[in-house]
Amino acid sequence: MLVVVALVYWPGLGGGFLFDDFPALVDNQQVHVSELSLRAIWHAATSFAPGGTGRQLAMASFALNYALGGLNPWGWKLGGLMVHLLNTLLIYFLCRRLMTLAGWHSNQRLAALVVALLWAVHPLQVSSVLYVVQRMETLCLSFVLLALLAYIRGRLAQQAGGRGWWLAACVPLFLLALGCKESALLLPLFTLCLELTLLRFEGATLPQRRFWRWGYAGGCALALVLFVFVVIPEYSAQENYAIRDFNALERVLTQLRVLPMYLGQVLLPLPHSMPFYYDDYAASSSLLHPRTTLIAGVLLAGLVCLAWFLRRRLPLFALGVLWFFAAHAITSNVIPLELVFEHRNYFALLGVLLSLAELVRQIPVRDGPAIKVAAVMAVVLGVGALGAIRSATWGDRLLLATELAALNPQSARAANELGVMYYQMAGDSADSPFFSLAKREFERQSTLPSTTILAEQSLILMHAGHGLPVDPAWWARLKQRLREQPITPGTSAALFGLLGNRVDKGVELDDLEIDESFVLMFNKVSLPPISYVQVAEHAVKYRGDHALASQLLDIAVEKGRDRPEQLHLLVQMLREDKQPALADELSARIASGGSGTK
Question: Does a structural domain hold residue 399?
């Protein structure tokens, strides 16, 4: 099984970095450790943005990749494949346990092998395994699966009258999973689903049974209170959705359509149904806009009711359904995440496969089991072939870029990826036909409904970088988008990309346009103090605009009141950049607490 999985993904190891790989890993200098010392690894482990307070274990694994092979993506993707192979093995053992609990007495080992293999080679998993940054998700699941195995073993020991010492292992495994990604918080929900279907809160004694029933009842009550009074007010606030073009209610309504789409991708994994980029996915404004929102909601409610009704008769089917919904409990909630991502199905896929396995087992076969086995093997071969094809596509960056742009021509992200690919193929020659292809793709990107300032940023940089005229309309469109669109992390990254090319690489750009663009962004969002100081330094150095610089320094001091040590580091940064006057001004404002100018 592991050899087959490795062969399916091996062609995909030749691909490149993609999308969030760049800000999180490629451009994150803290991950680029040159030695495997404890201090360097810890520095990298705490480099996850925002805040540097999470996902330490995953970030440390990326630092290990850099120390061993630099920025060659092959090694990074190989690390992701190794984690996936481990998870495949754990899925197999978990399926064996679950099928035993569900009363499977024949073909159990073969059935577990088939489910694990289908889970591992399914085309939907390719973007989780070969998209490097998603090792956060896959490594998190490694510890979650180990915790589930320990939980089942401990509970079965209890039910047999022994001591459930294995339950104690769930705590450190949960903490390790949490050190990879916040998805680990779903572990108690997964175990609740186990109790509702297969374990049924049983124990060797009445006090044990009461403990588990009342324990989970109390936990659910506490979770509900926290959700209503903490999570909803904290995450659904309008200011948290300032970076999105939808609100919390629209996000939750949209998930009624997204979850059935995921089910369709699992059941019929055709290439055109998995475009990877979903930035053009339209949000639902109500249950009837579009009407498919209500239809999808009824479908999902019916599926949950069916699972609840069959939880005793077909417990494995019910568990699979409940695990599918539980796996999406965070990403399909009020938290202001993007609407759709394929990697959110990394564990949810197992739930669907378990339900299908139980249904297949219930199908009566008049002429013996051979025909059922043959049909299942045909499905495995078909899914494996589709997975291998998608993996091979991911193994060629140009092929992947053209494929994603063709699958979703309305995706601005896909268009940008293809434009960047063409630009890189042009080398340093503006006369190359690939330069013209890149310009055409960026211009097409700028016309798409889902586009951001990234299209104009790319056009400006590619022309200015080669000494070609920059169309004033590009700057005008860029500033118009800053006025009208939400300021997303990608927007600020694009603007600071312009600033970096001007300051660090000496690209001749219109400095007045740069400063005006930053002012438009600063008027809509709050950023760390260093952002304002960097723009203030640019305003003084390139335009002599001390008035704007003073205003920005005031804002930086106000934003950094809680962390004065950071402000003093900014003073030092200005001195190192040979801006003593600006450093003295910032130091004086720190001492006086700022003038309050906004």
Answer: no
The verdict on residue 428 lying in a domain is yes
CB distance 15 to 400 below 8 Å: yes
The whole-model pTM stands at: 0.92
Q: Is residue 216 part of a domain?
A: no
**CA torsion through residues 409, 411, 415, 421, sign:** negative
Task: Provide the domain limits for residue 544.
Answer: 526-598
Please classify residue 50 by burial: count the beta carbons closer than 10 Å to its beta carbon, then call 0-12 exposed, 13-18 middle and 19+ buried: exposed
Residues 533 and 421 in one domain: no
Task: List, in sequence order, every residue forming a beta bridge with 289; answer none if it has no partner.
Answer: 286
Give me 493's structure tokens.
């990254």
Residue with tokens 């588990």: 212
Question: How many domains, in total, are found in the chain?
Answer: 3
Question: Between the CA of residue 59 and those of 23, 35, 41, 63, 153, what are the distances in Å?
Answer: 13, 15, 9, 6, 31
Retrieve residue 106's tokens.
């024949």
Q: Quick one: pLDDT at residue 37?
A: 84
Both 426 and 530 in one domain: the answer is no
H helix runs in 485-563, sequence order: 489-503, 511-522, 529-543, 546-559
pLDDT (tens digit per residue) in 135-145? 999 999 999 99
Q: Is 386 helix (H, G, I), strand (E, B) or coil?
A: helix
Alpha carbon 19 to its chain centroid, in Å, reads 10
Question: In angstroms, how far apart are the furthest CA atoms of the chain?
Answer: 90
Compute the distance between CA of residue 99 and CA of residue 506 in angstroms, rounded to an integer: 64
Tell me if residue 28 falls in helix, strand or coil: coil
Query: 550 and 465 in one domain?
Result: no
Q: Among 98-112, 317-331, 375-389, 392-406, whose mean pLDDT is lowest? A: 98-112
Q: What is the pLDDT of residue 53?
A: 60
Q: Specify whether the backbone of 161 is left (phi greater than 0), alpha (psi in -120 to 50) or beta.
A: left
CA 366, distance to chain mean position in Å, is 46
596 band by pLDDT with thresholds 50, 70 and 90: very low
- Tokens at 375, concatenated: 């049909």
State both tokens at 28: 């994150």
Calpha distance 451→472 (Å, rounded): 19
Same domain for 533 and 484?
Answer: no
**What is d(CA 16, CA 5) in angstroms, rounded to the nearest whole number?**
20
Whole-number Å distance between alpha carbons of 547 and 552:
9
